[in-house]
Amino acid sequence: MELGIQLIERCIANERAAQRQLYEILMPYLNLICKRYLNHTEELQDTLQEVFILIFKNIRQFDVQRASFKTWATQIAINCCLKNNTVYQRKGTQELIVPLHETPVDPTIIKTLSERDLLRWLKKMPEPYFQVFNLYVVDGFSHREIAELLQIDESLSRQRLTRSRAWLKQRLPEHLQTQLHLNKL
Amino acid sequence: MHYFEEEYQKRFKEGQSTDGVAPDQLWANIESALPPEEKPKRKAWLWVSLVLFLIFGILTGAYHFYFNDKKDINTNREVAVILRDEAISNTNTVNTAASTADEQVHTNSSLDTTGHKAETIISLAGDDLVLPPPTTEDIVVLKGKRNGNSNPTTVPHKNKLIPTENNTITNTVAPANKHKEKALPITLAKTTSGISAEESNTLAVVAKLATSINSLALPPRKVALPAIVLPAPVVGSTKALPLSLEFFTGISFWEERSTGNDSPFAQQLDEVHKSEAGLTTALEIRLPVSSSIDLISGFHYTYSRTVFEYTRSWDTMIYRNNIPGADLINAVGLREVKHHNSMQTLTIPLLAGWSSQGPKLQLGINAGVGLNLILETAGRSLNASGEVFTYSAASAPYPDVYLSYHLQPHLSYPLGQQFRLHFRPGISYQALGESEIYGLKRSALRTDWSLGVSWRRE
């Protein structure tokens, strides 16, 4: 994804053609990020809309010396998703206790799953675990950054990552097989 | 477990998907929430500058071609100044025993017309330049007389000084235009009394010939510029270099100076060469090295012009009262010659550029060196002995190749998405080096005033 400085300058100048160009470049990427972080897929379109409006309205604050534009846009998308998750959070409590015994993982099954199926399955993980798992494993945030982002302690971030991994280890094989069976049907 | 995390990261880190959204509808929603786009204001001054730029380009082009066509004809601008007249019609002889040059100096400003009345001056030997008479008398100048002296006495035109060694009234000056000279076979010096009707007719024919020769046009001298080769695109590369192509055109002024020498000859040489407006065009490639530093190279073509001014003495045969057949007198004239020197140079610059981007305007400065190749040059100058000589590319007092040092501040304004309008004054030091003809080290300061447009690849 190549984003020229001149394109960003034109977006700052509120040139509609440049904004559309930037939207077309960023949308597929941010769409997948929102899909990962949003708990409720029905909010995807509204969240993406909000993300892009925030990007265009705050684009003057982008500092090329600090991070790439993609990183900056990703940060906005994640913040927006987490905020929307909080807003639309369903009332109720979730059981966070995970058994510590593990079962072996069959690596070959994972490759056969589509991104959509993989996400659908992973989202069965408790939301706080999945948030930390995504932030740490995929987006490369440190525990300190995750703690700031989610407004939790660093130790809790570490704990949630451990528990997300434990959740995966415990459930990965049988769930994947079930999912594959369903897909074939 | 580690394998799963790697696989998961690989799929989602750089993954893209448009599933679950309608891109056009989403964009419509986004657009409705954005502040309305400001239509670019067609500022009057921008259009005016564009029109001026076009006019300027056309004029400079026309100017360039005009001088290419007329260079061999209009090199001399002559002024016949009557310094002294003698040998009035009573004697009807040409007085070849002239007074000394000192006398000529003293009589330059106040001509001794000895009470004769004249009306107009018509120069047949030089160009068709008609100037107001130096005195109340008008004099018909027929032609300079030539005696074949191989060592003409010439003095650079400095404060209108007159030759100091010309003790005889002779016209040893070859006309600037050799074509004209060959076409004037008739000597008009008369030693007999009066002029017959037949001779008057002959003079009229000569006058016609001289006029028709002035209209001769020489074929334009054309110099082919070397083809500009752009770097070939890299096959298989998906990342395009963010380079810019820039084109500039403008006027340039060439001020030539002696370096490190204060001798009278060096000063004289500096004073006899005057700067004239020339033409400069440039095609450049700008390659960004960092966010504010660029590397610039390309081709600069410069058509530099200077005027070499000097004076020569000559004899004239004149009729009084502008009536052919009237009293014939012999006089000493002073020819002021303005010779237009020209030089065409191709420069390959290697510059580093710094620029600072404002909301609209971009300000920057380029600095670096240039390798200069003289394509063609022609003109006149003084040699080490103080004599006027004519040179061409083969015998020019310049090296074929030399270095120059450039400083170019520039200001640009965006024109659309990828184009910018540039204004670039520039100054460059031309290290011409030691000249064997002059026996001096010479250099030149070239100032350019250019407008240009650039196109940037995204």
Describe this entry's structure for a reader.
- The complex is a heterodimer of chains A (185) and B (458).
- Mean pLDDT of chain A is 78; it is low at 91-105 and 179-185.
- Chain A has two domains: 5-87, Rna Polymerase Sigma Factor, Chain: A (Orthogonal Bundle); 107-184, Winged helix-like DNA-binding domain superfamily/Winged helix DNA-binding domain (Arc Repressor Mutant, subunit A).
- Chain A has helices at residues 5-12, 16-37, 44-57, 69-87, 107-112, 115-122, 127-138, 143-150, 154-184.
- Chain A is 69% helix and 0% strand.
- Chain A has 185 residues and is mostly helical.
- The two termini of chain B are 43 Å apart.
- The model of chain B is unreliable at 70-193 (pLDDT under 50).
- The interface between A and B is large, with 48 and 38 residues.
Short recap of the structure:
The complex is a heterodimer of chains A (185) and B (458). With 185 residues, chain A is mainly α.
| Domains of chain A, number | 2
Helical proportion of chain A, percent range: 55-70%
Shape annotation of chain B: elongated
Query: Pairing-aware structural class of the strands and helices of chain A?
Result: mainly alpha
The N- to C-terminal Cα distance of chain B equals 43 Å
